[in-house]
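Final report, Chapter 2: Outcomes

The project's central promise was a pipeline that accepts a single protein chain and returns its three-dimensional structure in a standardized token representation, suitable for archiving and comparison. That pipeline is now operational. To close this chapter, we reproduce one record exactly as it appears in the project archive, with the input sequence first and the structure output second.
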Amino acid sequence: MKSKKRYFAFILRFFLLFFLIVSPIACKTMQFGWKGTIARPESRVLFKEGGAHRGFLKTADLVVEYEYTRNPDNMLLSGYVQLDDSLRYNYELVDFFFLTINFLKGDGTVIERQTAMIFMSTEPIESKWRFERTFEIPPQTAAFAFSYKGRVLEKGQDNGGDWNFYLNPLQKPGK
């Protein structure tokens, strides 16, 4: 009986140690897969100094209306996200939505990514979602590009459908 307990304790420690070593490595690999990628030229927003600068991003999924003010080492970004009518009228719920800012060097290489907005709800889809955030800007930043991913659901997850949507303006160098 004593040897079974020791064997079980050994197996438990082995799996715990394995989990503690492997999971941080796996998370880092997944999190930093964007390093060194390049934003497509048409997705880049070149920084203008000072003042409030307005712009918008329109895709088949949504419209992002935004305004930013660039300071020497930070940027205030605010605006609205509105899902396209095709999503708002065909689906009732937003499972999740993430809006990400990709900070870019002058050649479009991604320096850093930061989340601008996270939206999760079991409530019916609203017409617009507001966001506002101040970002620390990494050195050498010349532009930024938006990325997003989300999923909408029909009411009743068991008998309803879902739709995943995303924008990834990043590509590997040389493509």
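Archive annotation: Residues 14-20, 22-32 have pLDDT under 50 and may be disordered.
This record, like all others produced under the grant, will remain available to the consortium after the project formally closes.
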